[in-house]
Amino acid sequence: MFKLETAGLAKRYGETDALLPTDLQVRAGEFLTLLGPSGSGKTTLLMMIAGLVAPTGGQLFIDGKDATYAPPGQRGIGMVFQSYALFPHMTVHDNVAYGLRMRRTGSQDMARLVDNALDMVKMREYAHRYPKELSGGQQQRVALARCFAYSPSVILLDEPLGALDKKLREHMQLEIRRLHQELGATFIYVTHDQEEALTMSDRICLMNHARIEQIGTPVELYDEPATRFAAGFIGQSNLLAGALEQAGSFRAGQHLIPVPAEQGAAAPEGAVSLLVRPEAVELTAPEQGLLQGEISEVVFLGNEVRVLVALPEGAGHTETFIARCGRERQPRVGDRVGLRWELARSRVLHC
Ligand SMILES: Nc1ncnc2c1ncn2[C@@H]1O[C@H](COP(=O)(O)OP(=O)(O)O)[C@@H](O)[C@H]1O
Ligand SMILES: [Mg+2]
């Protein structure tokens, strides 16, 4: 049984599908991230799980029970937003106690639960301050504590780090991972930041145009993207446009490129793409390459060098190819080079 499950859950606003009928299963204790561009339906899905937006179709099950129309307070769900939504006229302590009071916690338990929650986010010494006396990161910690205090078994977080600067965001990512492990609760985390999703998640649910594009572990999404969109959204990718010709080969313009046999064989007619990640591409002498081109840019990144290779026009594919190489090679702009990769590290995409 899943902790949480949607069956055809959907939301329309007039003629707009905010979420097409969606089936999603979330396991108890997992850290699941909803990742996708702005407007892809992430918040809508989260709000329906929380009970703050009413679905226009489908069902939601929590612990196997139909909770589609259960009142928000009876779902055992806590929520943290990007805007911390702290009460400005209440101290940190009272902000955290507020959620507990709403749930009619006895005053004896109250003090202990508030202290525990503040300890968890390392904010106990700030208990008597007001939100305006705290930094953005500290306010977000308080918002987390307010949610954790009443021990919800599911915690929903909607771009909670969106307002923080990069350094603090990276620190808070690790903090939230730690808290997830400590609490053992099920986390559903929304972000449009692919790096954040890769670092934090047990599984990523990639969303696009009001539906789930692909769902899997970070490694699965990176290594085995199912579509061009998934390949482009997560990590850097080189995508060649072309068609499968005979068993095991891909035609892009005048080039015939071998592809993994099992991917080339089952192919229907029509246009396909070939994905090769930059780190799989090796620079060679021109005649040894599967493709040839001219280096148009060399970017030094400290631990590696990123090389952009311009491909000849009319080859029927993207004009530049990204490769990475070690520092010993010393590639120069204008060099003619070949591009090679192990077959197993390329991937045919059908949509
Ligand atoms: N209250 C609303 N009224 C009308 N359209 C809405 C409303 N809320 C969301 N939408 C639309 O639904 C789509 C998905 O929105 P949302 O779930 O907020 O996306 P995300 O969180 O992925 O950015 C968008 O096209 C958005 O404009
Ligand atoms: Mg949103």
What does this structure look like?
The two termini are 32 Å apart. The protein folds into 2 domains: 220 residues, P-loop containing nucleotide triphosphate hydrolases (Rossmann fold, 3-Layer(aba) Sandwich), CATH 3.40.50; 107 residues, Nucleic acid-binding proteins (OB fold (Dihydrolipoamide Acetyltransferase, E2P), Beta Barrel). The protein is of the alpha+beta class and 351 residues long. Helices cover 25% and strands 33% of the residues. The site of adenosine-5'-diphosphate (ADP) has 11 residues, from strand 2 and helix 1.
List the topology elements.
Elements: E1 4-13, E2 16-26, E3 31-35, H1 42-50, E4 57-62, E5 65-66, E6 77-80, H2 92-102, H3 107-120, H4 136-148, E7 154-158, H5 166-183, E8 186-191, H6 194-200, E9 203-208, E10 211-216, H7 218-223, H8 228-233, E11 238-244, E12 249-252, E13 255-258, H9 261-265, E14 271-276, E15 282-284, E16 291-300, E17 305-310, E18 320-325, E19 336-340, E20 346-349
Parallel strand pairs: 3-8, 3-9, 6-7, 7-8
Antiparallel strand pairs: 1-2, 1-4, 4-5, 9-10, 11-12, 11-14, 12-13, 14-20, 15-19, 16-17, 16-19, 17-18
Helix pairs in contact: 2-3, 2-4, 3-4
The structure holds adenosine-5'-diphosphate and magnesium ion.
Notable traits:
351 residues; alpha+beta; Rossmann fold; OB fold (Dihydrolipoamide Acetyltransferase, E2P); 6-stranded mixed sheet; 5-stranded antiparallel sheet; 9 helices; elongated; binds adenosine-5'-diphosphate; binds magnesium ion
